[in-house]
User: What shape does this take?
Amino acid sequence: KNVTLQYSINDWENATALEMEILNNRTCRAVVPGQAAGTFVSYRVEANDVLENVLVACGNYSVKYPSVLNLTVIREAVYLGENITVRGYLTPPAESLPIAVCFTSANESKQVMCYTLANGTFTASFKPETIEAWNVQAKFGEDEFRYGSLSSELTIRVEEPPLLVKYSLYIGGGIGAVVIIGVLVYWRKSRG
Assistant: This one.
C-alpha cells in the first residue's frame, strides 16, 4: 500500500521522510538528495502491504570523496643494476592507504605495494634486470571514504652503464694497487 524512506545524516538526531514511488507490487523507488563528500547517510525503509504486513529494511552508506593520484619519477633514465624509484601523493591524504605501483616492460611486469604517509605521499622502488623501457603507473583501489584513482603512466629508460661506471670497481682497485706498489717502491728506495 505504501512505502516510506527515512534518512539521516547526523546519526538519527534528525531524520527526513520521503514517500517512495511504488513501481510494481514488489519494487519501490526514492532518491536521497545528494550530500557533501564525507557525509555518512543512514536510512530506514518501512513498507506496508494490503494484509497489514510491515517490512523494515535498514542500511547506510558514506558519500565518498573523489581521489587524485599523482606520480613522478626520480630519474627518467637509470643504469642497469640501479633502482627505478617513483614518488607520489594521493589526495585527499590519509595514512596507511595501500597503493599498487606497477612496473611494466615489453617482457615483464612487477607490482610493488606501498602505503601512504599521513600527508598522502608514498615511495616505491624496483630494480629491473633488463635493459629496456619500463612504464610505471600507480593505482588506489578505493576505501570507505574515497573513490579509486589511477595515476598517469610514466616511462623510464634502463640503460647500459658507461664503461667507467661499469668497471669502476676494477679501475679503482687497479689504481689502488698501483699506489700501494708505488709507496712500497718509494719506501724501499728511501731505506736503501
About this structure: The CA atoms of residues 43 and 164 lie 69 Å apart. Helices lie at 163-166, 168-191. The chain is about 15% helix and 45% strand.
